[in-house]
Amino acid sequence: MTKKVLIGNVEVGGGSSVKIQSMNNTDTRDAKATLAQIRELADHGCDITRVAIPDMEAAEALKIITSESPIPVVADIHFDYRLALAAAGNGAAKIRINPGNIGGPEKVKAVADKCKERGIPIRVGVNSGSISREILAKYGEVNADAMTESALGAVKLLEDQDFDDIVISIKSSSPRLTIDTYRILARTCDYPLHVGVTEAGTVREGAIKSAVGIGALLAEGIGDTIRVSLTGNPVDEVITAKQILKALDLRDGGITFISCPTCGRTQVPLIELAGQIEAKVTNLPYNLKVAVMGCVVNGPGEARECDIGIAGGKDEFVLFEKGEPVRKIPASTAVEEFVREVIRVGEEKSKAT
């Protein structure tokens, strides 16, 4: 088990639940736009967000952002230790730096002392593109051992300043390299691990790479907080992260949607209807498993663990709950009727708990 770190009021590590992070793509200097996006991320289940701090104007904007944000805000700093000091003084719940590139031991000490004084953890962020020439020369390539040595070397720069309130992230755009590296880190240290596949790609491609890299590690019990990196709306990162956690039974809440791939037995327009139903039920506030299946031959049995579902017949669906048939629904009204039934079951389950 990793040690516990507090990011604002959010626990990371120490056996606590896996936390979802994202990163704002607004201009941090525009506090109003940044806060609007943070609130949207929080509404979709984000636990922690990160904002870029490219200059002092952005660091100053943190005063407003952190005072009004519904979730902890991490300040992302590159190279300039003065920005880290300013962010720490302006309410950042965590500072993300690479201690190896902010200007030497005295500047690392200044940041470490400021964060220690204010109870702010530091996330040591290293990626496959930031490995030193010396380490690359030693290993001859970017590999898991090189990345691990780079990360632990950066951590030691903080430990040398008597600072150990640390979270480690070490990312690659390769899911395989990400998995191999975090496996070594998990055996080597007890700091909480921030897991992600960096520069994963657009929403479709990035979601697949992230599910492979993050999911494999979480299935082994490795990872305390995750960020899905996508080229797109950060809300999609949060939604994808939630889906990964739910697929591994690491997070409850919300709709878990199940549908079959269809086959020659399907006699209803399942692909079209499944998409319509998913769009209408995904954001409902119920902890339910919902199934849309192609045929009554296998559908109810295969989806027996679901709270409610429908299975196609000839121009109609059979509504079932926990695998047991309830009644038939015409295909022409299946979307509207099934969504109403999902809401009914959701309300009943909510009252019962």
H/E element string? EEEHEHEHEHEHHEHEHEHEHEHEEEH
The radius of gyration computed from the alpha-carbon positions, rounded to a whole number of angstroms, is: 23 Å
Please estimate the helix content: 40-55%
- Briefly note the structural class of the backbone: alpha/beta
Fraction of residues in β-strands: 15-25%
Count of DSSP H/I helices: 12
Low-confidence parts lasting 5 or more residues at pLDDT below 50? none
Mean pLDDT across every amino acid position: 90
The profile of the biggest β sheet is: 8 strands, parallel
Overview of this protein structure:
This protein is α/β, with parallel strands linked by helices and 353 residues long. It has twelve helices and 15 strands. It has helices spanning 31-43, 56-68, 81-89, 105-118, 133-139, 144-159, 175-188, 203-219, 234-247, 270-281, 299-302, 334-352, and strands spanning 5-7, 10-12, 19-23, 48-52, 73-76, 94-97, 122-127, 166-171, 194-195, 225-227, 255-259, 288-293, 308-312, 316-321, 324-330. Strands 8-7-6-5-4-3-10-9 form an eight-stranded parallel β-sheet. Helix 2 links the parallel strand 4 (48-52) and strand 5 (73-76). It is elongated and about 75 Å long. 46% of the residues are buried. The model has no long low-confidence stretch (mean pLDDT 90).
Provide keyphrases for this structure.
eight-stranded parallel sheet, five-stranded mixed sheet, alpha/beta, 15 strands, 353 residues
